Amino acid sequence: MARVSKQQMERNREEIIQVSSQLFRERGLNGVSVNDLMAAAGLTHGGFYGHFASKDELAAIASNKALEDSSTHWQAISQQPDQRNLRTLVEHYLSASHRDGVKDGCAITALASDVARESEDKPVREVYLNGVKAMLDRLESLADTEDDEQRRQQALTQTVLLVGALMLARATAGDPLSDEFLAAAKKALLGDA
User: pTM (2 decimals)?
Assistant: First the structure.
């Protein structure tokens, strides 16, 4: 059997991380096996441990990738001309397409319940916490007040409304209540949704 080049090994590793990032968001951290992850990446189970020490390590790396992707997307939206407010972010985040696109959507929402069940020593918990803090920082940077305490409280409230509404909308998808959750949160955040 031919040996795989270092470049191919790196491409394989990146593919495993990308696929895992999507599958963990779609099915949960414990809803997908190493076999499932490797098959989705087009690789065999046997190659997994050549890339990662454990599924826990991959969960942390893949979750970090998902959170970085979300952060990059949020940053791009919030830096558009005349978009220094929350409107564009809120309208995207609380959209039916984001609700229905779990595998490519917000990892904070998708992984919340799974991460809550993980023990505190699991690397994915620290990755997740850092992602939540980054989301808060982004929202604070878009606040319309100079007062630090008000800006922080505003960002906390916005995060709760965004994440909570999206979680409930996903859990009730297919029922009109799902759209009501999205609309109510938009109205609370924007005042005119």
Answer: 0.86
